[in-house]
Amino acid sequence: MKNQSNHIIDLSGFMAPVAALQAVRKFREMKTGECLEMVNCNHETMRMILRFFPKSAYQLLDEEKMPVQFFLYRVMMRKIDDI
């Protein structure tokens, strides 16, 4: 990843609503300009999580599929406004 994350949360193993709640909580704690890196083993869950954030609140910096034992999906976003 080119950008350095300020916060990293592993959402793998959480069902979609719980994972989204965890991500929103962390995002609300962050300061504007900080980066959040989220990791999850389900691409659709990760896409659903992003729907909980208004487009005006973040900048999507990176999204990748990481080939490990099980595929992991990683998303990095920068907070640009409060939600």
In which range does the helix fraction lie? Answer: 25-40%
CATH topology: Translation Initiation Factor IF3
Strand content: 25-35%
Q: In terms of structural class, how would the helical and strand content be classed?
A: alpha+beta
- Write out the CATH superfamily name: TusA-like domain
CATH class: Alpha Beta
Radius of gyration using CA atoms only:
12 Å
| Contiguous uncertain segments of 5+ residues | none
Write structural notes for this entry.
It is a single chain. The chain has 83 residues and is an alpha+beta fold. The protein has a single domain (7-79), classed as TusA-like domain (Translation Initiation Factor IF3). 27% of the residues lie in helices and 33% in strands. It contains two helices and four strands. It has a four-stranded mixed β-sheet with strand order 1-2-4-3. β1, α1 and β2 form a beta-alpha-beta unit. The protein is globular and about 35 Å long. It starts with 6 loop residues before the first strand and ends with a strand. The mean pLDDT is 90.
Topology:
Elements: E1 7-10, H1 16-29, E2 35-40, H2 43-50, E3 58-66, E4 72-79
Parallel strand pairs: 1-2
Antiparallel strand pairs: 2-4, 3-4
Helix pairs in contact: 1-2
Outline of the structure:
With 83 residues, the protein is α+β, with helices and mostly antiparallel strands.
Q: What are its keywords?
A:
single chain; 83 residues; alpha+beta; Translation Initiation Factor IF3; 4-stranded mixed beta sheet; 4 strands; globular
